[in-house]
Amino acid sequence: MTLNRIASKFALIVLTVLCAATMASAGTIRGSSDNGEDSNAPNWLMLGRSKSTTLTANGKVATMTREIICLNQDDENAFPSPTLTSSGSCDTGDYMYLFQFQSTSANVGVAIGKLVGFNNPANPANYGVMICDSPNNTIEMCTNDPTGANIPSFSANPTKTSVLFTVPGTFPTYSAGTAQQGQGLTFFVITKQAAPLPIALPSVGIR
């Protein structure tokens, strides 16, 4: 093999590795306008925001709040004639989980695990950061950064049952949105369960 061919082959390997790394670190910036508006909140807001929880690991500390959205605006309880045995679910089994974080620790990893129906982890549309981009949706939990200009260069490493988000340095500081939008960096993960119930609540922790 000639020196030029060896160099070309090495360059191709490096390019392949770099492309793979880029794909693995990609994540979607999604706007709350994609999920609905205040006027039809009963159709998409399946479970409102929780109380804030403090998470600790490896000397790092973060506070977290969670929320559940019906991706297809099909909250069973909002239907004119709901199926009683499906009450408390998203009818198609398509769930969006929101996790809002604040932290002053450096290089925090956010581990979302025990995902059920996370069938296409290679699709970055299924995970990323949620921003508050619409004056018509003021009651969904989201990152108060309407243009996404101040979202950090986070990495997202998915498997079939988990996503690990990592934020370099410290989390950006965002001003508070409405009481429902909250305050902090908001990650989302989308799953498609084979059946709407029981809801497989993901685990969440930091690293």
Describe this structure in words.
The structure is a single chain. This protein is α+β, with helices and mostly antiparallel strands. It has one domain. Helices cover 13% and strands 30% of the residues. The protein has helices at residues 3-25, 41-44; strands at 28-31, 45-47, 53-57, 60-70, 94-102, 109-113, 127-131, 155-158, 163-166, 185-192, 203-206. Strands 1, 2, 3, 4, 5, 7 and 10 form a seven-stranded mixed β-sheet that branches. A four-stranded antiparallel β-sheet has the order 8-9-6-11, with no helix packed on it. The model is unreliable at 2-25 (pLDDT under 50).
Task: Please tag this protein with its features.
2 helices, four-stranded antiparallel sheet, alpha+beta, seven-stranded mixed sheet, 207 residues, single chain
Oligomer: single chain
Radius of gyration: 19 Å
The beta-strand count equals 11
Number of helices: 2
What is the total domain count? Answer: 1
Mean pLDDT: 89
Helix percent reads: 10-25%
- What is the global morphology? globular
| Major β-sheet annotation | 7 strands, mixed
